[in-house]
Write a structure and sequence with these properties.
Layout lengths: L4 E3 H7 L5 H9 L3 E3 L2 E2 L4 E3 L6 E3 L2 E2 L3 E2 L2 E6 L28 E2 L8 E7 L2 H8 L7 E8 L4 H6 L4 E3 L2 E3 L3 E8 L2 E8 L6 H8 L3 E10 L2 E2 L8 E3 L5 H8 L6 E2 L1
Helix pairs in contact: 1-2
Length: 248
Amino acid sequence: MKSSKVRLSKILSHCGICSRREAEKYIKEGYLKVNGKIFTDYSIESKQIKKISIFDKVLNKKKTRIWIFNKPINYVSSNKEQGNQRSLFKLFPKDIPRLVSVGRLDIMSEGLMIFTNNPTLSSFLEKPKNKITRKYKVIVKGDLSEDLFVATKKNFEIAGQIYQKIKIQVISSREKIHTLKIELIEGKNREIRKIMKNYKLVVKKLKRVEYGPFKLGQLELGKIFEVNKQEFNKIFKKIGYIDENNFW
């Protein structure tokens, strides 16, 4: 019989209390209570949970919420800043709750990012096995090689890294400046930039415009918008995700 145990650190993280690592520390130190009693184990059978509290504050189950954001360049997709870096989270309104991003865009890339308060949904959208298509508008400089289009029609290798096939369409070309529409389902670290560099192309602009059923549309640069909950059923049906409605 499949175990129904849940990690308490995961619950605290999902509720936006702290990171999982911090949660384990608080649990060990006796700050967590389950059903009114201090609980120092890291996991528990879900059916045993009637009430959870941390620092004597009772946790309530959350409903899934989703935001789309138009990321500008020169912002990192993380709370962590190094040197002169700026976190995109500084652009969010103060009343936005603790969120997790669905993947990332590098500092010089812009466009659509998805944020949610439900890490399970975030993980589902990121996994290549779920075949969620990401679409980008990419402007490159250089000579377009037929080798690029042939190689990327199937799984291919660059510098020892295996990439799943991608779809590349030329939107326009003028001299050595080309506008491409690129579709992929994997989204590895700096994937498009590495592929273009391998074929002697310099990326001048990289903008994500779609991620599965989510579209950037006319959302202003640097702005964040919450998706209407009435759209959730249609969204989840398109991507094959089963929402638990309430989650810890």
